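It would be a great kindness if you could assist me with a short task in structural biology. The matter concerns a single protein, recorded as an amino acid sequence and a row of backbone structure tokens. Could you please explain, in whatever detail you think fit, how the structure tokens follow from the sequence? Thank you for your consideration; the sequence and its tokens are set out here:
___
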Amino acid sequence: MTAMSVLLIREGFRTGAWFTVGSAGIHYGNGRLDPQKNMGTQIEWQEIVRNPETSCDITIRHEGTYGNLKVPGIKFWRCTQQGKLVERTIPLWLTENMLKCFRFGNAQEVRIALLQGLAGCPGLRFHPDVFVEAGVDPQTWKSMRRPEIVDWSILMFALAIWFAFALTMLDTLPFIALFASFLAILGIAVLISTRFHRVAYPGFTDSICFCPEHEPEMTEDHPVQPEQKSEGQY
């Protein structure tokens, strides 16, 4: 408890975060922006490239950033000055440290601008789950409902059923059988959740590419580049 209090006090002195999406790229970081001490991370759109060894270049990755909590992030590939492909991940929450900045007030607006910027990079292939997790319709670039509430409800209901079963059979079944039943219930929950995704998002099955490598121009119907800079506000 004391260590956590010290951590909170330390982070409290370095509060703040920023996330900027512009025509040249993205710029984000934690703490106070300082041109001499803390410039954060800057990534230009031209540095985000296609990886020929993968089926999709923009995907969702779940990382345990906050303890055991799996935080979804947008994974992409960045080409360094040496020509090496480096994997990068940006949390969908747009902040890498919730102790410094819990959330941006205009987070969804910034997420949409981020995805539009990525969509303007030639040849990038998006996994459809990127838009499902971000809650963004790739055809209209407007917000749409996310699956978290239903997914969590399915999981909680499955766990409740298993706990009721385990309490009833605790004295009669061995531990291995109870563990097997837990895995079975969990597998059924995953199947139900997958089925829900297919029904709720029928068009989100194949990879999405807005700007093929041989046609890098933007179209009037799909303005893939943000017209002006979008900044995270907290």
